[in-house]
Amino acid sequence: MKHQIKHLAKITSGIYLKGKPSGDVFNLQARDVDEFYRFRKGLSPTAFSDAKVEKHYLHKGDVLVASKGNDFFAVVYNEEYSPAVASSIFLVIRNLDIHRVVPEYLSWYINHPKTQHFFKSVSKGTSLPTINKNYLASLEIPLPSIEKQKKIVLFDNLKVRRMRLP
Predict the structure, then answer these.
(1) pLDDT digits (tens, 9 = 90+) for 1-18
(2) Shortest CA distance to 47 belongs to which of 82, 93, 75, 12?
(3) Rounded distance, CA 125 to CA 54, Å?
(4) Helix (H), strand (E) at residue 3
(5) Is residue 129 within 8 Å of residue 120, measured between CB atoms?
(6) How far apart are CA 132 and CA 65, in angstroms?
(7) Whole-number percent of the chain with pLDDT over 90
(8) How far is it, in rounded angstroms, from Cα 140 to Cα 61?
(9) Which strand (E) or helix (H) includes residue 4?
(10) Sheet of 74-76: strands edge to edge?
């Protein structure tokens, strides 16, 4: 059975912040994600906390989806860097119904070539293709059992580990 993301979670936008050479908050950018859709090691905080920024703090299990560019990838935030916010290039899927979907499974599904093809077909713009929140919210995802979702994630993690071997 397929379910639209809007029935499983809330979708918000990332925040635009000017980068600083230092700070106390990680402002996660698309360039901070590697080719395996994991956060790179060794990032530094480049923003400062205030009331506006704190409202956008990421929580464990949030799924960040790049909404601009040639690759509309997804990455799961697991508090690797904290506190952190998503830059404005991302749409953030949060408050996911974890009794029905595992965040890493949702990320895997968004990164799947068929889903990427769908996003490329509905994106707007030529120099900087963009998908909007409505397309992401209306994306239908199949929801196998939680156990099967976890097995898919495990298999994907093993595949990434194998690809990273020298």
Answers:
(1) 899 999 999 999 999 998
(2) 82
(3) 32
(4) strand 2-4
(5) yes
(6) 11
(7) 83
(8) 19
(9) strand 2-4
(10) 10-13, 90-94, 63-66, 74-76
Supply 84's token pair: 């952190």
Contact 104, 76 (CB under 8 A): yes
Structure tokens, 51: 């009331």
Residues 33-82 have pLDDT tens digits of 999 999 999 999 999 999 999 999 999 999 999 999 889 999 999 999 99
- This prediction has a pTM of 0.94
Could you please report the per-residue DSSP string of 105-139? HHHHHHHSHHHHHHHHHH-B-SSS-B--HHHHHH-
How many residues appear in the chain?
166
Q: Tens of pLDDT along 74-132?
A: 999 999 999 999 999 999 999 999 899 999 999 999 999 999 999 988 888 778 889 99
Average pLDDT value for the chain: 94
- Displacement of CA 162 from its chain's centroid (Å): 22
Read off the amino acid at residue 87: S
Residue 84 corresponds to which amino acid?
A
Question: What is the three-class DSSP state of 26?
Answer: strand
Note if the bond before 83 is cis, omega within 30 degrees.
yes
E runs forming strands in 41-116: 63-66, 74-76, 84-86, 90-94
